[in-house]
Amino acid sequence: MAPNVEIVCDEKLDLGEGPHWDHKGGVLYYVDIFESSVFKYDPSTKKVNRVVVDKQNKTPVGFVIPVADTNNKFVIGYRNELAILTWDGISPDPTNVEVLVGVEPGTTNRFNDGKADPRGRLWAGTKAKYHPGEPEVRSGALYSLSKDGKTVKVHATDIGISNGLAWSSDFKTFYYIDSFNRAVDAFDYDIDSGETTNRRTVFDLIKNNVEGFPDGMTIDVEDKLWVATFGGSAIHRVDPVTGSLLQSVSLPAAKITSVAWGGPKLDELYVTSASRFDTEENRHAGRLFKVTGLGTSGGPGVPVKL
Ligand code: CA
Q: Given 22, 215, 220, 267, which residue is catalytic?
């Protein structure tokens, strides 16, 4: 069966990002970063609920991940802070936002992509302000959050745009994207300590003639990576062991930002996109897509344990 791409949400987002499938609730969460917005999409009703976290200042929301064993708490990247959003999933306004910890004070850097490791330990990285065509500033970093939610640990510095994160099924490898590198890197990972070592490149987009910048990423049950390309109009299945490109699926938008497995069988790939910086006529830019018929599946979104 050839892959099928459908538009699941008509709304054109500015910078749609961070899809996270909540398997227990059967819903997809995602964000529109500079609209300070978190969305909940329920495929059973096709209904979308949106909360604007900071109506007044539009504080950027880089990612959203549910907190384990709660039904109304989420960890969000909140400009250069990590915060707990309390939201009932329905109201257009949040119940509460409580900051946990901040990083990189005195900069205009902000948190970008984030994900929980298979044990629920939060990982998230930052980036400097950047517009396409400007000089690349590498002042971001990659962090993990302590279990008490009060401190962060630095795992990598000199990061350009901290993006996709994924863990192998044996938890021994952590895959990571700094978009400026046009590559996917891997670290050896110790799931007990949360330590990373031996960073190396496992997939080079330029060598594989892949257009665009690598952005969000997930992994499938066969330990192959799925990489969204910003400016590449596609998602790509990659073998991180051989460094080869296995499959590409085109989407009807140039700036594909991230991917997450979802659906009852976890075989549907939800894909976010952006209309930001769009100069050309790009009719479906910023929409939420769903790709089916990929012949594989993945894991559900992992909630953060605090
Ligand atoms: Ca991203």
A: 215
